[in-house]
Amino acid sequence: MDGTSDPQTQTIRERGRFKDKIALVTGAGQGIGQATAYRLAAEAAMVAVLDRNAETAAETAASICNSGGTAVECVCDVADTDAVAQSVAFLRDRFGRIDVLVNNAGFDRPGGFLKITPEDFLAVWSVHLLGAVNCCRACGPVMMERGDGRIVNVSSIYGRVGSKGESAYSSVKAGLIGLTKSLAREWGPKGVRVNAVLPGLTDTPTIRDVMHPKFKETIIAETPLARVAQPSEIAAAITFLASDDASFITGAALEVTGGWNL
Q: What pLDDT sits at residue 211?
């Protein structure tokens, strides 16, 4: 697992903020989701690594287990309502509960608004927003039965400010913020906290593959910290919101952007 030899990570693991907790992370095969799965496992959670890519899900789970953590892989497309329900039922039957849900799964189909087809919009909406809805609907009742649960939705700063050429992505990320605040109001009295993180530009495989270097350089130039985020830095914010350290925080939309958008 990345970083397990780092003394700081060892200290975190010994502290065990998520000891005896069951955490489900979607899109955990790479990028922010993978970093979050690693961080939760390092802090003693049992992590369900959910991804529609069987190979990357297995690799992430194996990496966690080989480093002394506990993980199980779940191969599932979050846009498939029945498949999500079956995966959550499997986890509930095996572990008895789900304490943490991180809705991270997503992808992008960039382009000018009039150039993106309705099918493109539907595909992006289905994974980002319907996927989060499916997971919340499946996990929420399990959490409310115990009177305790933590949900973190991975939105984006583009969900707050928008971006040219990113209308599909920006719209679903804005929807996740709305979903976060609505569920926080509805489920807070039942012991479930719901928050969102809004990452800025992050060094993920997707960004490395599709973003033009000049666009990346422009964003960095407009960022006070003058660099992109590492997935582990977004994971740190996610695990904070999912932990007892954030016990009186719900409905928050935490920007993790290095100061971009100030």
A: 73
- Give me 12's structure tokens: 């975190």
Tokens 């039942």 label which residue? 190
| Total domains in the fold of the chain | 1
CATH number (domain holding residue 13) = 3.40.50.720
Mean pLDDT computed over 173-201: 98
| Alpha carbon of residue 93 to chain centroid | 23
Query: How far is it, in rounded angstroms, from Cα 125 to Cα 169?
Result: 8
With b meaning 16 or more CB within 10 Å and e meaning fewer, what string describes 115-127? ebeeebbebbbbb
For residue 75, give its domain range: 7-202+231-256
Answer yes or no: 38 catalytic. Answer: no
- 198 within domain boundaries: yes
Q: Report whether pLDDT(221) > 60.
A: yes
Residue 107 in domain: yes
Domain annotation covers residue 236: yes
In whole angstroms, how large is the CA radius of gyration of the chain? 17
Confidence class of residue 13 from pLDDT cuts 50, 70 and 90? Answer: low
Two tokens at 74?
A: 């779940």
Tens digit of pLDDT for each residue in 99-130?
999 999 988 888 899 999 999 999 999 999 99
Alpha helices per DSSP H over the chain:
7-15, 31-42, 54-66, 81-95, 118-125, 131-146, 158-161, 167-187, 205-210, 213-221, 231-242
Considering the candidates 18, 38, 158, 169, report the single residue annotated as catalytic: 169
| Residue-by-residue DSSP string for 141-188 | HHHHHHT-EEEEEE--THHHH--TTBHHHHHHHHHHHHHHHHHHHHHG
pTM: 0.92
User: Is residue 62 included in any domain, yes or no?
Assistant: yes
